[in-house]
Amino acid sequence: MKVRRTCKLLVEPPSSATGDIAFNLIVFFLVCASIQPDSGRPQEIPRSEENQEQKEEVENIEIALTGNLNAISLNGDTVRTSELGPRLMKLLSTKKRPQDKIVIVKSKIDTPYHHWIDITTEIEKSGGQVTIQREEQQTIQVQ
Amino acid sequence: MKISRRPLAATVPSMAMGDIAFNLLIFFVILAKATDDSHLQWEPADSTEVIRAGAAKASIVIDAESKYYLNGQQVGIAQLGPQIEQILEGSAGDDRRVLLKVHRSATANHFEPIIEAVSEAGGTIMHVLEERRNRP
Q1: A1, A3, A24, B88: which has the highest count of C-beta atoms within 10 A?
Q2: CA of B52: which chain A residue's CA is closest?
Q3: Least CB-CB distance to B111: which of A44, A45, A113?
Q4: In a domain, A11, yes or no
Q5: Given a cut of 80, is residue B60 above it in pLDDT?
Q6: CA A38, CA B97: separation in Å to the nearest integer?
Q7: Between chains, do A19 and B16 touch, taking CB under 8 Å as contact?
Q8: Where in chain B are the domains?
Q9: Is there a contact between A8 and B7 (Cβ–Cβ < 8 Å)?
Q10: Which DSSP string corresponds to A44-62?
Q11: How far lies A66's CA from each of A48, A71, A114, A135, in Å?
Q12: Contact A111 B108 (CB under 8 A)
C-alpha cells in the first residue's frame, strides 16, 4: 500500500517587509495629497493714497454691495446682479485713462465673500480696476 | 592546541530599517504640519475663471469660524499687516504673492481688512477659489 505524502507549505509574507509596505503606502498617499494644486484668481488692489488733487479730477464708478445677492447699487442706482456686466461695460467704454477705470467697491458688513468675488470678477471682466473703500471707524467720546 | 574563537558579526538588524524610515517620515510630516494650513476648516468660493495659484511665501486663511491664520498660525487682525510686511520684505514680482483662502460665507467685516492689509504691504492677492462648473 502506498501512502501519499501530503506536503502543505505555510505561505505567509515575511514579517520583515511590513515596515517597508507601510513606508511605501505613506509615500503614495503623501504624493497623492500634494499633487492637488490650488487654483484661484490674482487681484492687484492699489494702495491707499491721499492725493486730493487727483480725487477732485476723477469721477470713479461706485458699486455698493449688501447681503442681498440679487441686486447691487451702481452709482446710486439699484441694478440687478445679472445686468451688472453690460451696464459696467457701457460706463467704462467712455473712460480712456487708467485712473478713470477704477471702480470703487463699498461693502456692507454682511456682504458674503462669494458675492464679493462674483462682483469683482465681473468688474475685471468689464475692464475695470477694483479698489475697496471701507467705512472709517471713529471713536467718539461723549462727555 | 588553540581553538580560534569564531568572529561575531555585529550588524544592524535590517528588519528594523522599515520601522526607522516610518518613524522618520511621521516626524517630518508632523514638522511640516506646523506650517501647513490644510487642517483648517474652510470652504472656497467659486468662480468661472481660475488659474493655478502656485506657491507663495504667505498664506492667509479665514476659516468657517472667521478666525485668521497666517501660514497656519492663528493671528489677530492687528498683527497681520506687520507680519505680512516682514514676510514679503526683499521680495519682488511673483514672490510678493499672498494666498487668500477665505471661507465662502465670511462677511466683508472679516475679509476686507485682510485685503487692505495685503495691498498696504504691497502684496499681490491670489484668491484661492474653486472652478465653477455649472453656472446656476
Answers
A1: B88
A2: A39
A3: A113
A4: no
A5: yes
A6: 13
A7: yes
A8: 13-136
A9: no
A10: --PPP---HHHHHH---EE
A11: 23, 8, 12, 13
A12: yes
Least reliable range by pLDDT among A18-22, A34-38, B17-21, B78-82 = A34-38
- Cell numbers found for residue A61: 464708478
Bridge partners (DSSP) of residue A39 are B52
Q: Which residues of chain A fall below pLDDT 50?
A: none
Cβ-in-10-Å burial (0-12, 13-18, 19+) of A28 comes to exposed
Q: Which three cell numbers stand for residue B88?
A: 514679503
- A102 assigned to some structural domain: yes
ipTM of the complex: 0.74
pLDDT value for A113: 94
- Is pLDDT of B19 > 80? no
- Per CB-CB distance under 8 Å, the chain A contacts of B97 are 42
Highest mean pLDDT among A51-65, B62-76, B121-135: B62-76
CATH number at residue A106: 3.30.420.270
- Are A87 and A79 within 8 A, CB to CB? yes
Q: Domain for residue A94, yes or no?
A: yes
Q: How many domains does chain A have?
A: 1
The residue segments making up the domain with residue A66 are 58-133
User: Which long-range contacts link A133-138 to residues 24+ away (Cβ below 8 Å)?
Assistant: A133/A104, A133/A105, A133/A106, A134/A106, A134/B112, A134/B113, A134/B116, A135/A106
